[in-house]
Every structure is written in C-alpha cells, then in structure tokens.
Amino acid sequence: MKIVVAILSIFILALMFTLFYYNPYLTGNTIESGNLTTTGLTIDDLGELRHWDHMPLSYNYSNEEECFPIRISRAELALNEIERLTENQVYFVFTESDADISFVCSRESFVNVVDRTETLGEAEVEYNLERKVITSAKINLYSGVPEECNYPDIEIHELLHALGEGHNTHTQSVMNVVQQKCLKSINMNVDGVIFERLKDTY
Question: Is residue 81 part of a domain?
C-alpha cells in the first residue's frame, strides 16, 4: 500500500511540474530587477506591475529568416489591430536594432507533452520590480496556425501579454487561456475593457 501511495505521489508531483512548465500560454516566468530574479510568477500574479514607461514600443523579428511570410503578415496585422483598438494610444515602430518587443519565429511546432495540445504562441515578459515597469518582451511564434484562421488572434493574445494583460476565463475572449476556435474579430462586448484599460494607461 505504501508503495502505491509513493508512486501516486511521484506521479502527481511530476504532473504538476509538467503542467506548470508546459502551460501553452504561461508568460512572465522570470521577472528581473537588477540582481533580483523572481521565478515562478506569471503575468496574472503581478497586479499593477504591468505597464511600459514609454511609447512608441519598438519591435523586430530577431530571426526573420525563420519566419514564414504568413507569420510576419499576421504579426503586422496584430500590431495594427491593437493600434486601432486603442485609438493609437498604444503604437509600435519597427527597428532593426534592439527592440522592446522581439518576435522569434520557429518552423517547428510546440506540443504539450501532457495533453498533446499544440501551442502556437508564447510570450516572455520581463519586469523591473523596483520601477514597476515592463522592460522587455519576447514573443515566440510556432508553426501550425490553421490556414482557415485569417484573423491574428494568437498574435494579439501574445502582444496583449507583452502589454501587461493577463488571462481571463471568458470563452469568447482573446485572452482566454486556451482558445477553442479561430476568432474572426475581437468581441468588444467581452474584451472592450482590455482596450479601454490600455487607453487609460498609455
């Protein structure tokens, strides 16, 4: 009996570890401030510690040669859509040098080892905890976007993480932790509050 309990305990711990580190939309795993590094926090844990201290935000494609044209096109559409929905209170400029937000493309798919779901995007956000600002963001774009999904919902989701937004549980929200289908547009009845908050912040 003790052996069974021990095996079950090990299995549960392994499952919890895997779910944490392979969450499809887990973001902000490492938050740095000088010599201070806080691990294990997600963007949803940080309360008001989630804004940039400047506009515009620069962006680039750190490995453009690996980006399929469709991924660049979708990223550009997402940037334009966020600018439009915030009435240009949030806006972006392309740079070939160091950028606030870096898109990193992969021609490989990323599959969750537990539930075999495919991750299409992932954001990593760094913070300065002393100044209470976002200092940089990296958006990983993986292959596997269905051809029928023309609206850049994945890219908008990850960009909103880069702007400090966390997840919510509404099934029609672009910030739902796991999107069940291709969104055709932003549902402003659901997500309007997100863009109003961004306009107020910036």
Answer: yes
